[in-house]
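TICKET: design request
STATUS: open
ATTACHED STRUCTURE:
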C-alpha cells in the first residue's frame, strides 16, 4: 500500500501533508543531477520473463512538475535505446517522455522514500507470452538515509528472528499432528497452535522486511541522505478508474555513476 501511495503521488501530482523526517528533498535534488543508472528489468513471470537490456538512464535537471515534499518531476534521458532478444534476434524498444522523482511517504512517516524513473512505451512490446503493454511504467527503488537504514536493518533482523520462531513452532506442532501415538484431542490442539503460529508469521511483516537491504553490497550510496536499494519493482499506469497501478516486474540497478567521475556500485 505504501508503494501504491507513492505511485499515485507521481501520477496525480498530489503530495503528503507533512514532512516529519529530516530530509531536505529540495537540496537533495541537485546532488542527483547527472546521475546515470543502468537498470536490468524483467517483465512477466519468473518462468518466462521478458528481459529488457540497456535501459540506461541519466537523471536531468530539467523540472517538469514542481511539487512540495518531493524533488519534483524532472526529465530522465535514455543514454541508449533499450532492446530485448527474441527468436528474430535483437529488437529495439522505443521509450519516450522519461521522468524521475524522489518522494518520501511522509503521510505514514515512512523511514524510506522512493526513487522513481518513468517512461512511456508508445506500443505494446511482447516476447513470447510476456508483454510490456503500451503506456507509462514506473521503475521504483527504495531510498533511505544512513540513520533510517540502520534502524530498518535492526527492525528486519528482529522480524526475521520472530518469523523463524513462528515457523519452528509450526513445524513442531505439525510433528505432533503426524505422530501416530497422539490422541485426536492432542492433534486438534496442535493444529490450532500451528495455525496460530502461521497467523503470527503472516502478520510479522516478514515479506515487506525483505525489501530492507542488510548489506552494503545491496545499496548504492549517493550520500548520507540518499542510499538507494539495488532491488526495485516495476508498476504500470492502469487506465481504469477502479484499478490502481499494476505490478508488472522486477528491477535491479547494476551500477551508478555520478558526473564528477566517482563510480559508486
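STATUS: resolved
RESOLUTION: sequence designed for all positions
ATTACHED SEQUENCE:
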Amino acid at each position: 500500500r505504501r508503494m501504491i501511495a507513492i505511485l499515485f503521488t507521481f501520477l496525480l501530482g498530489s503530495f503528503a501533508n507533512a514532512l516529519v523526517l529530516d530530509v531536505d528533498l529540495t537540496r537533495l535534488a541537485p546532488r542527483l543531477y547527472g546521475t546515470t543508472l543502468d537498470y536490468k528489468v524483467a517483465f512477466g513471470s519468473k518462468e518466462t520473463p521478458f528481459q529488457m537490456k540497456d535501459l540506461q538512464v541519466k537523471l536531468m535537471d530539467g523540472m517538469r512538475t514542481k511539487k512540495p515534499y518531493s524533488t519534483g518531476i524532472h526529465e530522465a534521458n535514455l543514454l541508449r535505446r533499450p532492446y530485448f532478444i527474441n527468436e528474430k534476434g535483437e529488437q529495439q524498444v522505443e521509450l519516450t517522455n522519461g521522468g524521475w522523482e524522489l518522494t518520501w511517504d511522509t503521510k505514514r512517516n515512512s523511514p524510506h522514500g522512493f526513487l522513481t524513473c518513468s517512461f512511456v512505451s508508445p506500443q505494446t512490446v511482447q516476447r513470447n507470452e510476456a508483454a510490456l503493454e503500451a503506456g507509462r511504467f514506473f521503475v521504483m527503488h527504495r531510498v533511505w538515509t544512513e540513520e533510517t537504514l540502520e534502524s530498518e536493518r535492526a527492525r528486519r533482523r528482529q522480524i526475521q528472528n520472530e518469523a523463524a520462531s513462528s515457523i519452528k513452532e509450526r513445524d513442531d506442532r505439525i510433528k505432533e499432528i503426524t505422530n501416530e501415538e497422539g490422541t485426536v484431542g492432542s492433534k486438534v490442539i496442535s493444529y490450532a497452535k500451528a495455525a496460530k503460529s502461521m497467523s503470527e508469521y503472516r502478520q510479522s511483516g516478514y515479506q515487506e522486511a525483505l525489501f530492507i537491504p542488510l548489506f552494503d553490497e545491496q545499496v548504492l550510496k549517493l550520500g548520507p541522505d540518499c542510499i538507494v536499494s539495488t532491488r526495485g519493482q516495476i508498476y504500470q499506469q492502469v487506465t481504469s478508474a477502479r484499478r490502481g497501478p499494476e505490478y508488472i516486474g522486477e528491477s535491479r540497478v547494476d551500477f551508478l555513476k555520478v558526473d564528477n567521475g566517482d563510480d559508486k556500485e
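CLOSING REMARK: DSSP finds five helices and 14 strands in the chain. Residues 1-20, 260-265 have pLDDT under 50 and may be disordered.
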